[in-house]
Amino acid sequence: MLLIPVLIGVTIITFTVSHVIPADPARAFAGGPKAQPETIARIRAELHLDKPLWEQYFYYLNDLIHLNLGKSFLENRPVTTALAQYFPATFELTIFAMIIAVPFGIIGGIISAIRQNKLSDHITRIIAIVGYSLPIFWLALMLQYVFAYQIPIFPLEGRLSAGMTSPTTFTGFYVLDSILSGNSATLLSSLHHLLLPAFTLGFATLAIILRMMRSSMLEVMGSDYIRTARAKGLSERTVIYKHALRNAMIPTITVTGLSFGGLLSGAVLTETIYNWPGMGRFAAHAVLGLDFNAVMGFTLVVAIIYVIANLIVDILYAVVDPRVKLGGG
Amino acid sequence: MRSFRKKDKKAGVLAIVLCALLIVVSFSGCVQQEGTNPEIKSPLTYVRYDIGEPRTLDPAEAYDSASCDMVNNIYDRLVTYKGNDTTTIHPSLATDWIEPTGNSTTWTFHLEQGVKFSNGNSFTADDVKYSFDRVLIVNSPDSGVVWILSQCMDTNSTKVIDDYTVEISLTQPYGGYLALLAFSVASIVDKETVEANGGVVADTDNEWMKENAVGTGPYTLDHWTHNSEIVLKKNDLYWGGWAGNHVDTVVVKSADEASTRILALQNGDADFAYIPYENLVDIRNKTGVIIYQAPSYDVVLGLFNTISENTFMANKEVRKALSYAFDYQSAIDDAYNGYLYRLPGCIPKGMPYYDTQNNGVPVYNYDLSRAAEILNASGYTQTYQFKGNLYRFNNTAIRIWYNSGNAERQKMALSFQQALTKLGINSIVSTEGWPQYLNRMYNTIEWDFMFLGWMPDYNDPDDYIAPFVGSAANGGDTFNTGWANATVDQKINEGKYSVDPTIRSNAYETAFNIYINDPSLIYIGQTTYTRGLRTWLQGYSYNPVLEYYYYNYYKAYPV
Fold first, then answer.
1. Contacts of B430 by beta carbon, 8 Å cutoff, 6+ apart
2. Alpha-carbon dihedral angle through residues A55, A58, A62, A68, given to the nearest 10 degrees
3. pLDDT the model gives residue A51
4. Which of residues 164-223 of A touch B (CB under 8 A)?
5. End-to-end CA separation in angstroms for chain B
6. What does residue A78 show for φ and ψ, rounded to 5 degrees?
7. Phi/psi-derived region of residue B379, left when phi > 0, alpha when psi is between -120 and 50, beta in every other case
8. Among B201, B434, B480, B528, which residue has the least CB neighbours within 10 Å?
9. pTM above the 0.95 mark?
10. Which residues on adjacent β-strands are paired with residue B223?
């Protein structure tokens, strides 16, 4: 139920912000200085730019209710078509980034906490600090330079090798589509192309999860019930994995959920450098080109993602900690 | 404690070794083997890394360079250019033609026989009429490119005489008609294919044609992944044949990040890449890579707003003085790193009638003394005192704008500001995004000077002079400078509608002598076209009006 007010709020904010800027997107879309007056007039009419702002908003809402996000003038095709292509690309990249970030972050955090101030703790903390501090564009450029140029073991950019036809589309996820269509060439190529950008995107999240996991583990390990469990003579393994871990996971799940939403919506730099045809690049182009419909379509999708991510986090709370009841108030 | 320190030491050593390894790896590529050519990657596939992507594959809508590029290689036109020659128009689907004589405006074209579209359909005169009429009926609602044909054709213009002859009666004489027919909008589509996929609807785009293509050209569309790549494969039925050396696959990648394009070129993933002027230094003297340079038709202009709120901008003497205050050499050396050369007037070098502009010698050069002299003589003296300095125009600031992200224009704007300061003129340099910039230019008078560029549609001076210095009433003033001159309009029309070279030459010369002495623009320069190429790429030569023609390309080291 939270979704509806959130989406209405998002539409009002994005619509107002994008439309109050004094600009001439119709002329920009129609070819700039070479634009013909008839073309500009047609685009203005199509975008309802000749109407008052409040009226434009209701046109937009009306289209939205009919699941019509309008046309992206920069891409010259419907926003829904563009998002249908870009969303799976970004989602696939984010999933792989999370596959790298979550297990390594959690395991690293646990090791770091239970071996506090030992060598492994120092190493994992260094990794966390590096992950926090490295600007993502710098990491992307360096990884590209070292592993795609100097030691060319990974491809430089893209989702598939140059010229390779994408697998039959079932989901838009190249890895999954390759498996479903039995296309081993695109499967290998897509996996190969995923590694560097997924690592780049996942590294900062790994660091965040690692730090969060470490600190919450340390906090839990120092609590009374852990001391009691130890006093009862439980093995250290049981204490850590059965009693401490579940409680320590709660903040980590929150961070992971929000990071997932953040990665989906904020992969602009990674996608730009690795030439990944995803939502981040689409959104960046749309914002710079003042492609209203594309900006609003993207924002709406991101809002939905965040709401869903929060919902999943809430469900996971209940799974991890049975004391949390879903829908119980 | 001791063992902990020992472990710490080990970690330190490990970190140092890793760092050293990283540095060695990073610089190992700097050592190149002398005298050996790197192995050619994918010898039959040409890969270009560029920015942007096509908006459409439909010739009736293609106007941006990326769309025209695809159309030019999938479709043919009646006439074409060859190599880097922009002066001679060669037959393509037309074997020959008869030009109109006397008062006639009728052209007759004889067509190539035995030509097939990539789907096996035969090309006939019906397709020519259908293609031209289709452009005029569809009326390019997205791009407005129809104007190129509609300025001298309507749906009654093209008549089919027989299967291989068409007659085209122009609505008015047009000096640059053949050049216009070589533009992508005049590409020939397969009537049967279009009719089977949505046909022709007035003022409406054909959605199928936007993302699909069947032409008679050397390549066919394989696939298009938006914002990633577009791939063409050779058309086995191409009437020009495939004897000799040609690439059989063309991949055009859309890569926003310059460093990605640079690395792709250096590691051989790319055969050809767009590298910005400021990054050319990164690929200079790299093994296997060359910087290709050629004169382009792309011009860089400064625009004066003659209808500005600052009324002194309406005074031609002020604009003449400002033309002397622009540091052209700094624009060439500092902003464009030498990849720019002077432009005397509207018509770029390489285009017919260039010499009608003071024989190609620029009238204005950077000369602050001359600028001050003109301003003083016009009564705009340095009389306003502010913080110990004397200013002209009562210290009213000249508002200079450039669009954000354009490094060259930013440098020129700052250089201009410095020069104006020396002249005692206050100025403000500002920037904003492209849609906002256009809004300012076309919908406000809140600017005095802006930068803009122009690229060719077709190879005729009318494509430059009419939009630049024609009045709004005559279909010109494309930059909304507000400038107009009746005699210049008359001469523009004389040049446009005459096929007599002497009449055209005189018309353009007279127009030049008027507009250069009452400048609405600063003709800053004409850019050098530069691209990064692998040395193994052969057959490429830049033509400003037909930038890419992949059929000529192949990959081999020169013997």
1. B399, B400, B401
2. 80
3. 87
4. 165-166
5. 69
6. -60, 145
7. left
8. B201
9. no
10. B231
